[in-house]
Amino acid sequence: MAITSEKTINAALNTNKAQKKLVRKLAKKHLLLTSLAGTVEALEALTDITKGIRDSIEYLESRKEWNFNWIDGGWNSTFAVTREDAIANAVSEFSSDTLVPDSETFRVATDADTKALLSLFY
Q1: Mind giving me the DSSP string for 38-71?
Q2: What is the extent of the structural domain holding 16?
Q3: b/e for 50-67, b at 16 or more Cβ within 10 A?
Q4: What is the pLDDT of residues 6-44, one digit of tens each?
Q5: I need a surface site. Which of 39, 57, 79, 110 has the fewest CB within 10 A?
Q6: Residue 4: which of 28, 20, 26, 27 has the closest Cα?
Q7: Does 1 map to a domain?
């Protein structure tokens, strides 16, 4: 059961501040729900919800691969927790006079996106 929408989670990945805020909010929900479960039946009923919260927190705090494009064409990827960190990583790792990351194109890598990008090499 999803306690937080995918849209909310994706929005929280844009900045470190938004990510930390959502993690704190989810942790509070988790604590409240587990403290309310006074009986085994109540705890069993809340198991799916609390698992969803823990999964969301784990995803929000994990390093993810971020695909991005260069302003003059081409693409690359970097690893970071948030989009903000991914942009900073790309600038520090790859940026040069000829390679400038397009900050508008940073997105969490999906199998389909990465496969499509890799197909450009064939």
Answers
A1: -SHHHHHHHHHHHHHHHHHHHHHHS-EEEEEEBT
A2: 6-61
A3: bebbeebbeebeeebebb
A4: 888 888 898 999 999 999 999 988 888 877 766 667 777
A5: 39
A6: 26
A7: no
